[in-house]
Amino acid sequence: MTGSLNSRCTSTRRSSGHVIARTPLVCIVVILALLTGASGSDLRTYEDADSVVFKGVWDGDTFYATIPGWTKIIGDSIKIRVLDINCLKTAPSQDSTHPGKQAKALTQKVLDRAKVISLKETQRGESFRVVAKVLVDGEDLGGMLVDSGFAIECDQKCSRFFVYATPNSKAYHLISCSQGGESQNKKRLTIEDARGGNLESCYYCNPDRFVGGD
Ligand SMILES: [Zn+2]
User: Fold this and answer.
1) How far apart are the C-alpha atoms of 122 and 134, rounded to whole Å?
2) N or C: which end of the chain has fewer CB within 10 A?
3) C-alpha 44 – ligand 1 centre gap (Å)
């Protein structure tokens, strides 16, 4: 068996040595390009965390958790920022009906009741934070907040925000807005493109209030 494998390799190398010699070089170039691209856009992902221990909510899109198996300086009650969404920030002066406070209450409730909280697509965030997709008993926490109208979808750096509009819209909406038209006709676009198309932020769901912050 070993003998036949060896002879096959030898004969391949003999018949097309230049192809074999060139292939690893191509691989290395591709890998280097991928690595450079990943670090250039600062979106390197790290290992998943399968079962983190919830420690408390900061606001709707940020909470504290301890990550078993990670070194303590990183994993002990670290701030976790939910990937790809942005909630309104909370302030002491706001009452409980403020959407930022409602987002915080929803996240608190969901994480309090969770059996298993896991982190996927884990990234290093600013200010000693972990940024990750958060799964609560298999369900996406960010998706829950967006569906509830307490968060807007954004890209991984929260530099571009996404809204919804139908072909004849005068306004752009959150996905959850009942004023946004039939769901099958809703088209996802960036706020910049919506504004460029002379659409305005919906009076009811007001996506603009979610833009900015961290
Ligand atoms: Zn709306």
Assistant:
1) 9
2) N
3) 34
Query: How many angstroms does the Cα of residue 164 sit away from the middle of ligand 1?
Result: 9
Q: Ligand 1 centroid to 149 CA: how many Å? A: 10
Ligand 1 mean position, distance from CA 179 (Å): 5
Distance in angstroms (rounded) separating the CA atoms of residues 187 and 53:
37
Q: Decide the pairing of beta strands 129-136 and 151-154.
A: unpaired
Q: Cα of 165 to ligand 1 centre, how many Å?
A: 9
Ordered DSSP codes for 2-24: HHHHHHHHHHHHHHSHHHHHHHH
Phi, psi of 64 (to 5 degrees): -105, 140
pTM here is 0.79
- Distance from residue 170's CA to the centre of ligand 1 (Å): 11
What is the Cα–Cα distance from 130 to 30, expressed in whole angstroms? 29
Distance CA 73, CA 135 (A): 23
- Taking the centre of ligand 1 as the mean of its atom positions, its distance from the CA of residue 173, in whole angstroms, is 4
First and final CA of the chain: distance in angstroms?
Answer: 60
CB atoms within 10 A of CB 75: 17
Distance 132 CA to ligand 1 centre (A): 27
Enumerate helices (H) and strands (E) in the chain, giving the number of each: 6, 12
